Amino acid sequence: MKLEPVKITIRLPMEFIDQIDLLVDMDDFPSRSEAIRTAVRDMLYQRTTLVLEKMEKKAELQRKMEQINKFKNEYLKQ
Question: What is the pTM assigned to this prediction?
């Protein structure tokens, strides 16, 4: 299934545009759009992985806290 592109408007500092244009001029990308698509895709992969790792760590911490509370309730009753 191919995703249909959606046109959006963004504002970037001229320094970013200059760097994108350099990549296009050096034939690293065929166009500004392709360079920006690649940058967004790479950022999404990276951030999604980071968020999933955080979610896993949080779930593990919650499991450990439940174990600690169970232990406290069983063995440290006052």
Answer: 0.66
